[in-house]
Amino acid sequence: MAKSPSSYHIDLKESNGLTDIFQGDIDNCSFVSAFQAIVLYDLGTSLRGLIKETCQGTYTILFNVNGCQRDCPVSSELSEKRIHSSTNPGLLWPAIIEKAYLELYQYSSGQFQGSNFGNDCYLLTGFIPEYVAVEDIDMAFMANLNHYFHDKQAILGLAVDNLTDDEISVFRLVPNHDYSITEITENDGKFLITVKDPSVAENSLRVFLLDEIYGRFKTLYINWNSTRFTYRESKSFVMMQSKRFNNDSFIDDYQFRVSFTNETWVLLERHERREVTDQQLPGGISSIQWYEGEGKLWKSSDGKYISSVPVSNSRFTLCKLDLKGIRKAVGVFRLPNEADEHVFYTLMAYSTSPVTIERPRNRLKYTEEVIGNWSTWESGGNWSESTWYDNPQYEIIADGGTTDTVACAIGIFSDCSLHIALHVFDHEFGQFNRVFYFSRKELVTDIKRYNEGFNTCLVRLQAHRKYVLVCSTYNTAQLGEFKLMVNSDALVRISKIPHELGLFTKRIDTEIMANGEDWTLVTSFKLKRASRVNIKAICSNLDISQLRLLNAHTVKDISSMDVHGSVSFLGSQKTKLQEGRYEIQVKITTRQKVKVDLEIGTDYKI
């Protein structure tokens, strides 16, 4: 009768046959190849140090995972499918580590999604993983790697891609399989690379010329000795959701500032998830872009570009920052348009001098955010349209404190399918709350082009003065949500300006003809008590030259204006008219009927 697993005695000091470890009947070549490479590196000293016997027959294994070191408890019961030594059947403690590894990744539940040499080497050693495409390896790279390998600064492995049946026969390699690199030698300017197949007990070594690894292998795994750095800083964070808006701005992306004085490596680790669904959504962070500076970036031109690193599916992404003269860099962690929610990450910085990781702040002290919307009733198109005034508008008043002017960065952000712009007007002396006409004289920002998805500007505002910000799309058919942000060096108050002319609005549609007088009556109304009065007049053609509001009792003009387009506005939202009867009159330049549509806004129903 075969021995039961529980009857095994595990000697943690046993080392005979350690270099002859090979893979059992479990599909975990990445773990075994990493284990073999670590044994070659230090004869298994670090691996043996991972195990601690807590009580008889129970052990804890210390792994580097999810941004920390974690103890994984296991019993001494071992499967016959376990990792073995071909020369010492009694060498069992490697199987204890393997068992903890499989339990960590829920292998028995069928949820094991696979791993790779670099991930598993980090899990076992904490050595910094880097993934290099084989086609990017050249002689100079190999010469440096050879030095680091023999100087015990790196542990190396190779991955085979998916192969055709013919390629398997010719190359004599296992597809989708990881191999450890056991030796690198240079002879007459040629590099020879010895690899070990973790699944073979005997004759497991193969030697390749550097030129021969192209086309056979896809990825070089490098796990850098982390003791080369004396300082380490880490921050963990959770990606709560995907980007709110699909555009090229950075406003929804996670950002971190790294401060350093010497060469610094930054490692991003995506945490393993305990639950795995059958239908996985697209992953989390897609790339990391680095810029010189220390403040939060709204867009790429806000900082000097340094480098960009794509984020692979390998859980780890390494960024090497060796920037002469630069002491602070901001990393922008680009989010996809769709992503898993609640993805956890840890960001680790390694350096030979003190290093810090912080979330950058906006460059100025105060920030206000507003969420708005272009809807069918509040979308007026670009500034050259006669309906431009129908766009969402916001009142901005800056509290200067001890200063006369306030510096402001203003941005508007939406989906890239929308071409959008923002314009700020000095509206201190405007009679209406809203801006109804595009006045270059009152404009305090440049007339910017309509950009895809976002637009920004820098302005200086006079303290305690009223400004109006108009958010517009290029045409009225472009509808959707937007975010408005104002970053300033003093407190700024932002409030939405109502689209309506007043608390109550009365509509009058009529046709009139000239009556032989200078002015022709359109309509009249009576105020029972004081009220603000605001009038919007829409004419069917340009046969009206003037519009006025008249006090019928005193026959005195309250307000008048020349008409230059199909839409005109008259009145004031600053002052109230006293009770009485009022008339709206026009000057007509034709003898034909003229259609006039009126909206009269007041403080109460008339």
UniProtKB/TrEMBL annotation:
Question: Keywords for this entry?
Answer: Hydrolase, Protease, Thiol protease
* InterPro entries recorded: Calpain_III_sf, PalB/RIM13, Papain-like_cys_pep_sf, Peptidase_C2_calpain_cat
Which PROSITE patterns does this one have?
CALPAIN_CAT
> Which GO BP terms apply?
proteolysis
- Gene3D superfamilies referenced in this protein's UniProt entry, alphabetically: 2.60.120.380
Matching Pfam families: Peptidase_C2
Gene Ontology MF: a single term: calcium-dependent cysteine-type endopeptidase activity
Q: Where is the Calpain catalytic domain?
A: 1-198
The family database entries (SUPFAM superfamilies) matched by this protein are listed as: Calpain large subunit, middle domain (domain III) (SSF49758), Cysteine proteinases (SSF54001)
Say if the entry is tagged with keyword Transferase: no
UniProt xrefs under PANTHER family: CALPAIN-7
Family (UniProt): Belongs to the peptidase C2 family. PalB/RIM13 subfamily.
Q: What is this protein called?
A: Cysteine protease RIM13
